[in-house]
Amino acid sequence: MAQQVKLQLRDANISGILDIKDHREFPVAINYQLADLRKIGEPDSNNLWRSGAFSKTAKIPYSKDNQVILEDLHNANVDKSDILASLECELFIDGIPIPDIKTAKVKNINRSGSKGWELDMQLFGDNLEWAKLLEAKMLDEYDFGTDTKPTTFDYTKAEIEDSWTSNFSDDWDIYFPVISYGAWLDAEQIIVEDLRPAIYYRAMLREFFLDIGYQIESTFLDSSTFTDKVFPFIGENFKKPDSFITDNQLYVGGDDLGHTTFPSIIIFPDDTTGNFDDPADNYDTTTGLFTAPESGKYAFDVKLNLRNNNTADRWDVRVEVFNTTTSVSYANQQISIQNNFFGNFDFTTGYVLVNSGETVAVRIRVSNDNFVTELVSLAVGAFDVYWPGTRAGNLRVTPSTEFVAGNTITTKDILPSEVSALDILRGLTHTFNLMYRTDVMNKKVFIEPRDTFFTGEANAKEWTDLIDVRTDYTLSFIADIKRRMNFKYIEDGDDGHIEFRNEFYGKEYGSYEHNFPERFPKGETDSENPLFAATYSFRDVLIAPKVSSTEYVDYVDAPFISMMHTEYFSIPIKSRPERYYTFDPRILSKVNVAQTDSSGNNILMRWEDTTHPTIPTALAIGLSGTVTAPNILYGGTDGLVATYYAKHLETIETGIILTARLYLDADQIS
Length: 670
Fold this sequence. Notes:
Layout: E1 5-10, E2 15-19, E3 31-32, E4 54-60, H1 64-69, H2 81-84, E5 87-93, E6 96-98, E7 101-111, E8 117-125, H3 130-135, E9 152-154, H4 157-165, E10 174-175, E11 179-180, E12 198-200, H5 201-211, E13 215-217, H6 224-227, E14 229-231, H7 243-248, E15 250-254, E16 256-260, E17 264-265, E18 283-284, E19 289-291, E20 296-308, E21 315-323, E22 328-337, E23 342-354, E24 359-367, E25 383-386, E26 393-399, E27 408-410, H8 421-432, E28 434-439, E29 444-449, H9 450-453, E30 474-477, E31 484-490, H10 496-505, E32 512-515, E33 524-533, E34 536-539, E35 560-563, E36 588-593, E37 605-607, E38 610-612, E39 615-619, H11 640-644, H12 646-654, E40 656-659, H13 666-669
Parallel strand pairs: 11-35, 13-29, 31-33
Antiparallel strand pairs: 1-2, 1-5, 3-4, 4-8, 5-6, 5-7, 7-8, 9-27, 10-12, 12-14, 14-36, 15-26, 16-25, 17-24, 18-19, 19-24, 20-23, 20-25, 20-26, 21-22, 21-24, 28-29, 30-40, 31-32, 34-35, 36-39, 37-38
């Protein structure tokens, strides 16, 4: 029996040694639970932060020494937040430290008659409170980036190609996989705007734990088996902020724009009395030029009223929006105007691409033979841009939030705001059957797959002689798990292709069914990934060089890539649904290698006016004879269950549970 039990508080605001009331309960009343075998792939996944691997409730009695340390507990006017928070501590029993007791938390404050108060204090070992911190922060709140690659990236051909040949080990956090989300933007090739960035999961974990002041130690997470895993883009945030529209929209014009000669740029005044606006000063009212603040798509809406002041002539008048930098005409409207009559122009360009720094203007052109020839000069006053009593004309420019090639993008701004860091950890925990151990004092978390987290019988400690034979102990098989267990990803209702396939085959894509021996009760249990959905792959004939102008390559000779489609289309899938990105999160492996066709030749990909010799994609499984990739579906001899759950399932089937009291000293516990 313990003769002396002391609790050393080491918190920055509260420190000292507390006496514990009942020494008889130590040390045998500490409850240990290394892992619940029946919680397949989800070690405390719903309440990961609330308790450690073991805990003990101790009574802290009233005493002069304890009163000095916790002097403000009885004072109703004092903020007790420091006292009621989790406190770093160390437990000593007869002078021997219990190594894994690291935190303590006040549960109750009780009156103890005339002696004052006493506390119920809960002691935690291997505490997982860091998980609570991860739950509170969403993906779009983390500044992904390294010294090599900052928190922004350039949306360019060069940057994308650099991501293909670089890895997480090269200090890259992003990768641009070729994934089909629907129809390609260019019927002849893949272009920059077709691709979306994926984030390495190892980069996510680095940022998650650095943010809360913890380190990760993991052989598995630092191995190439994991560092090639990526979070492909999903969601609706791949766009410029809405403030880009309000900061750069333009509305200029006036009642009387005066006379003009031809060809002539119309100069619209910045008439603020008419609620016209140019907050970023993108429009020059002396030259009539709009300058694009950055590369993007802009819509130009033109309204003009022209009067032909000539006494006899009829003119063909064309008003157009054109790029004065590139001499490209975006749109125009042509009206034949009789002398002393008016022409009412009202048209839009729709969204057109304008690169950063290029200038755009509205100009008038005139002809008297339907522009077989063009008149280059007319007398001043030939036309009035005027309409009595109304506005003579105005120009509205509306920027789009759509990113285009050449933009610089902040990584966190495009990530989903509804997925938390803890959500990611839960998904990875199920995928790889991860286990966690925390060194609270050194703020370090040890993470490994369960089948390597527990090193096996060869490294086990011999505790047979430590069993308290004076008390009952039990040996039992695990028998409360249903006979059939289904490992699977969640179903993504927006993935129409997989949904159709699941219904057609009567089985969920990527799932695995495990059957325990007959001593287990009949029935089935789903072990479902709490976050990730399965991802299908296919050969895409649309991105391979064509055999001729009208003939695609054979399906067996096309690049093998991943897909997320809202509709099902049969092979060779030449028809595609509209592009769509709001899918459930996925996990894939980066794969950028040369793929081979049915004749053993390299498969090529059409990319930005070139043919690319490798296929930079991200896959859940490879394709025999074409490309090798890790199998991160649950089924298969090399799938997730076979790789990360085999020993776990074997232990459930053949192992036994020992429930006993043991006499353990500090060295045996450590």
